[in-house]
Amino acid sequence: IWVSKQVDLGLDSVASPRANVEYTPGSSQPVRLRIFNDGIVGAFGAKYFVELYNPAGQLFYLDSIRLDIGANEAWMEQWKYAPLNAAGDYRGLARVRYEFDPYRFNDSFTWSFTVGRAVDLQAKEWLWPNTADTLEWGSGPYAPSIVIQNGGYLPRSGTLICEAYQNGQRVYQSSAFRSLDSAQSDTVVFVQTLMANQLGQLNLRAYWQRDSLDQHPENDSLFFVLPVRAFKDLALTDLSPQPNSLTEGFSGWTATIKLKGLGPKRGTDSTQLRITLQSETETLLDDTLQVAALQLGDSLALETNDSIKGLLPGNYTLIAYLLSPVDSFPLNDSLKHLFVVRINTAPELPTQSLRVYPMPSKDGRFTLENHPEEAYLIYDNAGRLVQEGTAANELHLAPSLPNGTYWLQLPNRTTIALVLQR
Q1: Main-chain dihedrals φ then ψ at residue 218, nearest 5 degrees
Q2: What is the pTM for the complete model shown?
Q3: Number of C-alpha atoms within 13 angstroms, CB side, residue 245?
Q4: pLDDT tens-place string over residues 39-81
Q5: Lowest-pLDDT range, 11-20, 92-101, 208-217?
Q6: How many Å apart are CA 101 and CA 162, to the nearest integer?
Q7: Helices (H), 176-216
Q8: Taking residues 382-406, what's their average pLDDT?
């Protein structure tokens, strides 16, 4: 037995406006639904109605059309455009009315759709820092601040976090909780503990903690790269004794110091340069020079006019450092140069030579023939002072000195080799 429907009209799906599509408030959308006839007989003059209800539950759209539809036919039919003015949840109802259709269960179709965003917590913009900000090294504390907004049509609460990173390490973190009505904006000022303690880039991020219902995470975060510089920075970049290779016979020295103004602001006057020369036992020089004001990119070469006669063999340290009341970055304000004064050439005996024996000595005792009592200095081959005192006709080397050649220096600059071989 073959059983078939004579006429069966219905609606079973919607193309527009439909769920899972984000419609912009204030836009207009076509109303399109699928209609069908499952019967073996066509229908003529069937009337189709569409009703739309806004988020307040009010009917704001009603349209109807009269159609003929053949046996076993189906298609997407379009009604008038619907104005979707308010954000929120909408409801739709479509139905067909045809007196010769005995099957009423599929004569109507309901659905829902959304206009605007239900949940959308946004981080809108920075109030601090802004594009013109550069931090001075060592400054702070600072309080980052931002503007936030609820871009959804539902009230929503959430937690905001602000973090700062430098050289791969987190140097700041703060959080704040906010509740916002639909379309409400607010200002968030985070805790004032951010410090600019390192030169370079300070990377800031402010963001809403993840909300599973917020389908627009692309506007949840703000980023900012903040330079940290030394605003007033006078830096010593070079220091050296002149000439660089010193010998026993050198009668003086000079030092060259270069100063450079760094950072986005000008340097400063009232800056002094202090330079010292130290031996292993005493300070031989301690001078202070006035430094002229420098602007960004300027360099200045200074020379000392000091002269120290007859530096003895030994280890010396040349030190220079800046004294500035407003230099914001003191880590590059000092330089140190170590050098050794060595005996330059093999000593020459004086015209009237002094006879010293035995040579070599096996016990460290040397006889100075016909020599009056006077002060003496003894150096090793590295130029280090190893013994000093006074002696007349006999000189004793200290028992702790190892075998080798030593140099006896007398006040008349006579230099004599002493060979010890125990």
Answers
A1: -65, -20
A2: 0.55
A3: 2
A4: 999 999 999 999 999 999 999 999 999 999 999 999 999 999 9
A5: 208-217
A6: 65
A7: none
A8: 86
Distance between CA atoms of 58 and 60, rounded to whole angstroms? Answer: 6
Alpha carbon dihedral 48, 52, 53, 55, in 10-degree steps, equals: 160
State which amino acid sits at residue 90: Y
The tokens for 404 are 């080798």
Q: Is 375 exposed, middle or buried (0-12, 13-18, 19+ CB in 10 A)?
A: exposed
CA 64 to chain centre: 64
Q: What is the overall mean pLDDT for the chain?
A: 84
Q: Among the ranges 102-111, 126-135, 354-363, 365-374, which has the highest mean pLDDT value?
A: 102-111
Indicate the SS3 state at residue 183.
Answer: coil
Q: Which is nearest to 419 in space by CA: 346, 347, 364, 340?
A: 364
Q: Residue 61: what residue type? A: Y
**In this predicted model, which residue has the larger pLDDT, 261 or 321?**
321
Spatial CB neighbours of 362, under 8 Å, sequence gap ≥ 6: 421, 422
Which positions ≥6 away from 212 have C-beta within 8 Å?
Answer: none
pLDDT in tens, 267-317: 455 678 888 888 888 888 888 877 766 666 667 777 665 556 556 777 778
Please give the Cα distance from 41 to 5 (Å, whole number).
8
Per DSSP, the chain holds a count of helices (H) and strands (E) of 0, 30
Q: What's the CA gap between 239 and 245, in Å, rounded? A: 14
To 5 degrees, how large is the angle CA 276–CA 281–CA 285? 20
pLDDT number for residue 236:
75
Burial category of 385 from C-beta neighbours within 10 Å (exposed 0-12, middle 13-18, buried 19 and up)? middle
| Residues 312, 418: Cα–Cα separation, whole Å | 18
CB count, 10 Å around CB of 280? Answer: 10
Chain position carrying tokens 């009341």: 325
Cβ proximity of 170 and 164 under 8 Å: yes
- Looking at per-residue pLDDT, the higher value among 382 and 142 belongs to 142
- Please give the single-letter amino acid code of residue 85: N
